[in-house]
Every structure is written in C-alpha cells, then in structure tokens.
Amino acid sequence: MTTTMTQLAPTADRRAIPRRITQEEREQLAPAYQRMLEDAADLSPAPGFPPFEMLSGEHGSAVRAAFQVGWVYGVRGGHTGPALTDVPLPGSTLRAALETAQRGVSVSGEDGPRVLQSVDYHGSLTSRHGVYWVTRRDEVAERDGRTTIKYEISRWTGLRFRVVATGVNRKSVTALPEFFRR
Prior knowledge:
This protein is of the alpha+beta class.
C-alpha cells in the first residue's frame, strides 16, 4: 500500500501563500493549544521551573509562538490527518518541550529568578530583608550601554501582591526553589 501526503503545489507566485496565520488555522489551533495546556497542567516540571499551568509572560509567549508555527507547518504541509487522532503525546515529550522553552527564554541571556518565584532578599534595604515573590522582571539599559535585570519583589497578602521593593538588582536576591501557587 502506498501512502501519499497532501502538499502545497509548487508556485512561482509566493504571494499566493498566506503570509500570516489564517482565521481558519487560528480556529483549528485554539482547541489544540488549549488541550496542550490542559495536558501540561497535569505534569510536574523539573526542579527550579514554575508549574506549567502558570505559563505566562515571556515563557507563555515563546511556547505559544512555537506551537503556532508547528501547527501551521503541519496544516499547510498536509500532515494533520487522522492517522494519530486521539493518540496522546507522551507526557515526557511534552514536558521536555516545555522545559526547553522555559530554559530558552531569558532576558539578556542572564539567569536568575523568574516571575512568581520565591526569593530571599538581602539587598541594601536592610529593613526589608526576607523572603518575597518576584512579581516583575525587567531588562534595563545602563548608562554604559549594557543591560541588566531589575526585579520587583512583593509579599502575598492572601488576596493580592503588595509591592515591597522595585529596581532590585540580581545580586540582592537569591532564588528559592518555590513558585507561587494560589
């Protein structure tokens, strides 16, 4: 038995190929991406990474962008047929992909605490020394043209985060292996 796959016909006019994700592709992509997030929520990430259900900000954007590109390539290449319908992707494969995305996203190539990670603050505001949550992480241009990471650290009140300090330097915090879960 010979198997053939649907493929885009060669064309000299590249303008005939949509330059953006089409509405139809978005409609197909949305439930598939939601299913991936639901499957990811059941996985335990490696130590030092936030729970996958908290994929947001830069990590969520990276994962969604990679998922969209893969999905569109599959759809446009004709590789989304029913051959593996309802066959789940192994959790280990999904976990590895998500952890790779999380590792790959770091501002200025610097490591350091991530948003919603617990940190021990030991900076110049000695009255504020203690354990807090990172609620913001920004890349800041210094006068000499280099970039550094600045953090906003907050305390959880039980209802919301209350900012304790902003513009915190990387050297003033030590990342702890705990991530915020409500």
